[in-house]
Amino acid sequence: MNRYLLGWMLLGALPAAASSSFPTAVKEHVQLSQMPACALCHTGGVTGMGTVNTAFGKALRNEGLTAGDDDALRTALDALAAKGTDSDADGSGDVDELKAGRNPNLADAPGVDAGPDAGTTPQPPSPKYGCGANAVPGLGGLVALMVVAGWSRRRR
Question: Which long-range contacts link 76-79 to residues 24+ away (Cβ below 8 Å)?
């Protein structure tokens, strides 16, 4: 086995692939008109393990969302809808906001019509190639690369 790959694996620093089926599963289950962006759940739209940290993403995790499990995603979405979970505390439930084309992470402006254009910030753009397209290694990946590079230099 390639010792660089081995180093990455031993340190657990390989970039984790996002659950690429999740945007489609959300779109179909909630019956959205457009594909949701990765930034709906992932901080800054950067995918990978440990990046589901938006308010909406945390709400889904609190309802049992697990990586790669479309059934757990659908169950979590149903739980949010049933409970009327409002991650941004603006008075509109997360699933209702999604259906209206709004971002459940961003509070709507007071007094603004609750139509699809409501709120002060538009819905993040849809991903062009799926959530896994922009996964990057984090600090752990950089540290692992440095360790492996140093290790291979000493062995020569």
Answer: 77/26, 77/29, 77/30
Q: Which residues pair with 42 in a beta bridge?
A: 52
**Tens-level pLDDT at each residue, the chain (156 residues):** 445 444 444 444 433 345 788 999 999 999 998 899 889 999 888 888 888 999 999 999 999 998 889 999 999 999 999 999 999 999 999 999 999 989 999 997 554 444 444 444 444 554 444 455 444 545 566 666 666 666 556 655
The verdict on pTM exceeding 0.85 is: no
Helix, strand or coil for residue 7?
Answer: helix
CA distance linking residue 77 with residue 81, whole number of Å: 6
